[in-house]
């Protein structure tokens, strides 16, 4: 279940691109629906073929799907089409993993760099070389990844899922707070529901998130629990330490971080998009 959730999460990341999408109100739902269909097809089709070719489903008890270990799809491809198809599937898996790593590295590194530019992190982390690459942020992100290599794959997945679920709950809370307190501000894309409709919409995923968070406790996976709690505690300590360094001027920051959601909107919303917004909403945002 954790692996399935890990494979199908991070759909919320599309929100960071909403301000860059032309006609986001109609394009975003279509793009999400298309991406969802393609993603599900990319999982269901190979697994369905592998199940039919392997025949493990005909076995009983623990023997069923015992061969379904890492690299099994490559073996199935070899059984179907020989070395050509088997090698192609393995090569595709390698390229996919490299692409996934680069995508994750890019998003994390540029997030660190942007946080430094907006004053949340020290200014040094905003450094870019002559190719506009955030090299220091990449090195920091690489150190975090290397620290996770001491864990096995399933522990890493569960750890990432727990941290992601906590972040999702924060996103849900922020979304509901803004929808309740400022329902009329301009947004690149607005969910066509009222406040209570949004609560009902978020209720099923919130329950599922709580289930994912509770799974390590039920299964007594203390290493995952320790890493998750440690990550939360470390984040709070790091925040207090950065505040202390800012106050004592021990580290240099590019600016003071945004104080509220209005400052954040000023930093991150492309102002050219406001030409399409209602003038009253723009005035309330700016003022």
3D shape: globular
Number of helical segments with 4 or more residues: 9
Mean pLDDT: 78
pLDDT < 50 runs, ≥5 residues: 269-287
Q: Give the C-alpha Rg.
A: 23 Å
Beta-strand percent range: under 5%
Please state the oligomeric state of the protein chains shown.
single chain
Sheet with most strands: none
Q: Helix-strand pattern, N to C?
A: HHHHHHHHH
Family: Belongs to the amino acid-polyamine-organocation (APC) superfamily. Polyamine:cation symporter (PHS) (TC 2.A.3.12) family.
Subcellular location: Cell membrane
Transmembrane segments: 31-53, 80-99, 134-153, 159-178, 190-218, 224-242
Protein name: Solute carrier 38 member
Question: What does it look like?
Answer:
This protein is mainly α and 287 residues long. It has 2 domains: 71-150, no CATH class; 152-286, no CATH class. Helix content is 67%, strand content 0%. The chain is built from 9 helices and no strands. It has helices at 2-7, 24-54, 72-117, 135-148, 153-181, 195-218, 222-248, 261-268, 279-286. α3 crosses α4 and α5 (153-181) crosses α7. The protein is globular and about 65 Å long.
């Amino acid at each position: 279940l954790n692996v399935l959730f890990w494979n199908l999460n991070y759909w919320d990341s599309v929100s960071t691109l909403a301000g860059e999408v032309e006609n986001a109100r109609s394009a975003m739902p279509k793009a999400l629906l298309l991406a969802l269909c393609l993603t599900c097809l990319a999982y269901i089709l190979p697994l369905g073929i592998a199940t039919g070719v392997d025949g493990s489903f005909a076995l009983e008890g623990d023997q069923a799907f015992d061969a379904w270990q890492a690299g099994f799809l490559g073996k199935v491809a070899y059984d179907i089409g020989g070395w050509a198809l088997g090698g192609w599937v393995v090569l595709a898996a390698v390229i996919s993993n490299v692409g996934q790593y680069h995508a994750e590295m890019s998003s994390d590194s540029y997030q660190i760099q942007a946080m430094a530019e907006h004053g949340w992190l020290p200014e040094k982390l905003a450094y870019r070389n002559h190719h506009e690459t955030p090299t220091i942020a990449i090195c920091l992100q690489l150190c975090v990844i290397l620290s996770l290599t001491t864990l096995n794959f399933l522990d890493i997945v569960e750890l990432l899922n727990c941290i992601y679920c906590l972040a999702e709950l924060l996103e849900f809370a922020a979304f509901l707070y803004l929808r309740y307190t400022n329902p009329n501000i301009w947004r690149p894309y607005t969910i066509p529901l009222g406040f209570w409709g949004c609560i009902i919409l978020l209720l099923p995923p919130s329950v599922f998130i709580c289930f994912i968070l509770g799974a390590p406790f039920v299964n007594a996976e203390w290493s995952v629990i320790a890493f998750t709690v440690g990550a939360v505690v470390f984040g709070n300590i790091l925040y207090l330490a950065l505040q202390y360094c800012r106050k004592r001027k021990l580290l240099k920051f590019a600016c003071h971080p945004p104080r509220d959601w209005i400052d954040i909107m000023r930093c991150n919303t492309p102002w050219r998009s406001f030409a399409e917004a209602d003038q009253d909403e723009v005035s309330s945002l700016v003022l």
